[in-house]
Amino acid sequence: MLEALTTHFPSSAKVIGAGSGLHVLLQPGNGMDEAELVRAAENTGVKVYPTSVYALSPEWALPATVLLGFGGLAEEEIRTGVKLLAKAFGGSDREMS
């Protein structure tokens, strides 16, 4: 997952919880709000989850952050999904430097 995110997202994207297990949080930093991120991912067939639902209070919610789960996915499925997310979130479908 981390390799795919590094490959397809610019360095301005922030990954939280890289050592946490079967999921990471992603802040693409592309100007989209959380609902737009979830909708854009859904439109490409990739399921991501909003993180604001876990905040005790709306003002404590992380800005424009989605949860990416990858338990039970093959490496190729992860690479394909992250590539689709990068495109959906305003990036390129090619590898980014």
Task: Give the topology.
Layout (H helix, E strand, L loop, with lengths): L1 H7 L5 E3 L6 E5 L6 H10 L5 E2 L15 E4 L5 H14 L9
Antiparallel strand pairs: 1-2, 2-4, 3-4
Question: What can you see in these coordinates?
Answer:
By secondary structure, the chain is of the alpha+beta class. The chain is 32% helix and 14% strand. It has helices spanning 2-8, 34-43, 75-88; strands at 14-16, 23-27, 49-50, 66-69. The longest helix is centred in the C-terminal third of the chain and has 14 residues, at 75-88.
- How are the strands of the biggest sheet laid out side by side? 1-2-4-3
Number of distinct beta strands: 4
Average pLDDT reading: 90
Strand content: 5-15%
Q: How many angstroms does the end-to-end distance come to?
A: 17 Å
> Could you tell me the radius of gyration in angstroms?
13 Å
The major beta sheet can be summarized as:
4 strands, antiparallel
SSE order, one letter for each helix or strand: HEEHEEH
- Total helices: the number is 3
Structural class: alpha+beta
Could you estimate the helical fraction of the residues in percent? Answer: 25-40%
Judging from the principal axes of the Cα atoms, what is the shape? globular
Poorly predicted ranges: 93-97
